[in-house]
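Forum > Structural Biology > Help requests

Title: Can anyone predict the 3D structure of 3-methyl-2-oxobutanoate hydroxymethyltransferase?

Hi all, first post here. I have the sequence for 3-methyl-2-oxobutanoate hydroxymethyltransferase but no way to get a structure on my laptop. I'd be grateful if someone could post the structure tokens.
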Amino acid sequence: MSIIKENFEKMNITKIKNAKSNRKLTVITAYDALFANLFKNIADIILVGDSLNMSFAGKNDTLSATLDQMIYHTKAVCNGAKEAFVVVDMPFGTYINKDEALKNASKVYAKTNAAAVKIEGGEDRADIVEHLTKNSIAVMGHIGLMPQYVRSEGGYKVRGKDKHDAQQLIKDALAIEKAGAFSIVIEGVMSDVAKEISEAVNIPTIGIGAGKDTDGQVLVWSDMLGLFEEFKPKFVRDYLDGANLVKEAVKQYRSDVQNGSFPSKEEEY
Ligand code: KIV
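Reply #1:
Sure, ran it for you. Structure tokens for 3-methyl-2-oxobutanoate hydroxymethyltransferase below:
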């Protein structure tokens, strides 16, 4: 048994909140049972991100992801990682007001074993986060660069570059914390500002492209395994040369088929 498995602790909301002062949290996305099964007992949290709309469904952004799509993938992730703490992204348009948000988040709870939902937005969405948490839905916030705002903002823009924006981000984090969120993703934010935000709130911050001073990190699995070739953000570290390894393996398979060496006698019935 590996060291990681022996040290792995099944997470819950209390343990995640307590991690703030104790240790860094490792979060990874997953979209299916196969990979969720590989990540379970290693990552503290598995996020079924609506980024699946891009890397899995091949769309240009996350905006057309649907609730049914998210539920389908979350069921698969929960099947593959039964013990994991699974968070699911509420897709664009499913939390436009408090009632819609509660109806849709309740559907996620009813149909999947997800432990929590994630909502993009700061002060502007604090009333929605509060409505959900008051109705017993666990919420992870998401501030900074918010992919669901890409069309209204005219692109993906790194946040916190000036004092005014830095102050707004701190207000956003405090509003989401006050609304009852148990943690906050901080995406695409200048690292000194992400540090300030992390010091300002008492719940764990999970950074992505936000430097090293957040309380944890999240990466999209297909980015960090080098499988998503379309675009590689600066903050992604390649932990595997996935795309090339896969292509080489499939080329080898093709070559073995073509030269007749696959299947061999041992691979026959
Ligand atoms: O959709 C997603 O995968 C996310 C992460 C980038 C945090 O929201």
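The chain has two domains: 13-238, 241-268. The beta strands are 25-29, 45-48, 85-89, 116-120, 139-144, 183-187, 205-208, 216-219.
Shout if anything looks off.
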